[in-house]
Automatic annotation (TrEMBL):
Keywords, ordered alphabetically: NADP, Oxidoreductase
Protein name: dTDP-4-dehydrorhamnose reductase
PANTHER family on file: DTDP-4-DEHYDRORHAMNOSE REDUCTASE (PTHR10491), METHIONINE ADENOSYLTRANSFERASE 2 SUBUNIT BETA (PTHR10491:SF4)
Role summary: Catalyzes the reduction of dTDP-6-deoxy-L-lyxo-4-hexulose to yield dTDP-L-rhamnose.
Entry's cofactor comment: Binds 1 Mg(2+) ion per monomer.
Molecular function GO terms recorded: dTDP-4-dehydrorhamnose reductase activity
GN (gene name): rfbD
Pathway assigned to this chain's UniProt record: Carbohydrate biosynthesis; dTDP-L-rhamnose biosynthesis
Amino acid sequence: MKVLITGAKGQLGRGLIAASPDDAAIHAVDIDDCDLTNEGSIFNLVGNIAPDLIINAAAYTAVDNAESEEDLAAAINADAVKALASVHSGRIVHVSTDFVFDGGSSRPYRPEDKRAPISTYGRTKARGEDHLRPDDILVRTSWVYTAGGQNFVRTMLRLMREKPELKVVADQIGAPTWAPGLAAVIWGLVKSGASGIYHHSDAGTASWYDFAVAIQEEALSLGLLSREVPIHPIPTSDYPTPAARPAFSLLDCRKTRELLGDGHTHWRKNLRKMLKEEQALG
């Protein structure tokens, strides 16, 4: 099976390559290999490789910058998906986000729930979803992180070393997702012959404040931090950003779990794994 992975240098892309099955011939590309804002570049890439499967892990994820760079966000998050779907006759696995929902739900969002994005990033990701075909796989996820990546965990570790105290938003609720776990789920969906919409995040619920507190506790226990700093919960209104965030974006992952027949690892356990990997990186 010849597999084209876009966004190969990103957090998920690296996880997909590391977890790839033995029978997969991986062709991993990133921005240096293909300009996803250029339809011709995409057509040439797919034509030259002729993959059996495309896993699109590339995305414009700078949520706040997207408010002033809508054309660029749309080109990568929506138009590139359209181009991939038009040039490739085989299956596509496309990765999307909890930001396609407005955060007004009182229960975890199911794959079939109505989308109502409240940010440019969310709107462009929703548009990208609309270009998928019935046999493709759409995987929505949230709060992705991994060792060595650019993410909330590593930002918190840096700030905890630099600042005397931190203030972290406590009224945005969701769930962190460890990228290697997400990669394993994607390969599981491919192997199962799945199609349609699936959700995956780690088990459990957290606010960004909860996540930050856990990061500090686990990092202290591993010796990644030498001191404890106060972490204060604040409302979103005290931390204004250009892009609106959903207040509640927990994903209902039961459909994914039932199909794959696997358990659901709690986010704190995966956080511990990531921090041990971070420690090994030095």
